[in-house]
Amino acid sequence: VWEMSLFFTVWLLSAPERETNSFRLTEGALSVKPLLQTPLRCPGTDVIMIESANYGRTDDKICDSDPAQMENTRCYLPDAYKIMSLRCNNRTQCAVVAGPDVFPDPCPGTYKYLEVQYECRRGNW
User: Fold this and answer.
1) pTM for this structure?
2) What percent of the chain has pLDDT over 70?
3) Would the keyword Glycoprotein turn up in this protein's UniProt record (predicted)?
4) CA dist 7 to 11, 47, 63, 69, Å?
């Protein structure tokens, strides 16, 4: 039996100051301006399964800002996968705000984003 799975990577940006909410689609990833609640969704009754997640910064090109705030590209939050899994796994959709209310700050002074890869799997109902 063939099972179709969809994979998505989502980048949500977190910044100290508020900016105008806007979206742009680049390289198959969704980049979202700071503190915007953006839903992860699967079609029909398929459910979300988080494959990987990081809140921090691993690239100086994604969600770029002041160069001084992007120097640290080894910024990881080890609990990001657990946090996202608890909030989103086995749901058809979930919304997460990339910010300090949800994620502890792994590297103060660094302009961070939430990077999530998830799969849509056939629901068990």
Assistant:
1) 0.70
2) 66
3) no
4) 14, 12, 21, 30
